[in-house]
Amino acid sequence: MVKTIAILAPDLHGGATTRVYLLAQVLQKLGHAVKIYGLVFGERVYPDPPENLEVFALPGGDYPQIISNLRELLTLMGSPDIIYAVKPRPTSLGLALIKRWQTGIPVMLDLDDWEMSWHGGDDWQYRPTIKQLARDVIQPQGALRNPNHPLYIQWSEKLIAQADALTVDTRFLQYRFGGTYLPNGKDVELFNPANFDPEASRLKYGLQDYRVLLFPGTARPHKGLEDVLAALEQLEQPDYRLVIVGGTEIKDNYLEQLMQRWGKWIIKLPQFPTDLMPEIVAAAHIFVVPQREDLTAIAQFPIKLTEGMAMAKPILATQVGDIPEILGDTGYLVTPGAIEQIATKIQWIWDHLDTANLLGNQSRQRCVELYSFDRMATILGKIIDRL
User: Fold this and answer.
1) Could you give the CA distance from residue 345 to residue 149 in angstroms, rounded to a whole number?
2) What is the pLDDT of residues 194-203, one digit of tens each?
C-alpha cells in the first residue's frame, strides 16, 4: 500500500543530507510518496537534491527566531502517513514528536551518527554558573540560542525510545540505542563501472597525468587524510595525488591547513551532483577511506565507502568501526594512523594493480548483495508494514 512519508532533516546543509536523500530514494523505490522538510543552517541546501525529490526548506537560525519557521514546517507537512526524522535533534525528532502529539501520526527515527560523540560523548556536561546561564540564554549570541547546542542534543537522545520505529546505520549505534540495522546502500545501477571509461574520466577532469587516490567528502581530522598525505610524502613519487571531491565548508579551515602543509599532493575538485559521481569515482586508481580510531569515526558508516565498492575500485581503508565488516575480504585494511602501513599498501596496490582490480570486482559484488538500494528497500519495507 502506497504511503505518504515526510522526512524531517535536522539541517539541509551538510553531511546528514546525504543520508536523508538516500532514505528518500529507497522509499520511492518501494513506491511511496516522499517529501523532505527541514531548516537550512547555511547559505543553501547542500548538497543539491536528486531531481526527483521534493525538498521544502526554510531558513535556520537561532532561538527564538526560528520558532516561526518550525511552526511553518509543521503546517507544510500536512498529514502524511508516516514521519521519518533523521538524527535526534530538536529540529527533526523534536518536531516529529510534536506532530505526533498533535495528530497521532507514527514517527520513525534514523540514526546515522552518535551526535554526542562530536562533543566528548558521555563525558560532556553543561554546568554553567547562574551568570553564564543567563548570558547563554539572554545574549544575542548566547550559546543556548543555538538549536544544535549539545545540551539540546543530549535531551533529544533521551527521547529516542519515544519513536515508533528506529533505524541505525552502524553496529555501534545498534548496540547503544537498539533499532534495526539499515546500512548505507548505493544505487548499483547508477554506480556501475561497466558504463564508464576510467581513462576518459581522468582526461575529462584533468587527472590523466596522475596516479589517483580518491576521497569524496568533507575533510575532517577523524577521516585520516593527514595519514594518507604523510604516506605520499614518504613514498616521494611525484605523480601520486590525493583527489578530494566535494565536501561541506567547515569553519575550522581544516582543508586549508592540509593544503598549506601538503598542497603538492592534493587536487581539490568541487562538489558534483549525484548522477555525475560515478564518472568521478571511475577516475580513481585507489579509493581511500582512512578513518582514524576516533569515537566519531567508530560510530559512523562512511557513506562514500559503498561508492568505491559499487565502482569496483581497489579500496584502502582502516580497521575502524564497521569498515572490516562492510568490506569483508574485498578491500585492503591497515591499522588506523599507521603511516608506514598506508605507504606500503599504496605502493603494493599500484605494483599489483591487476590483482587489486580483481578484488575490486569482488567488492562490487558484495555491494550489490549487501549494500544496495534493493537491500535497504527490503529492510525498510518490513518496518513500514509493521507500522
Assistant:
1) 41
2) 999 999 999 9
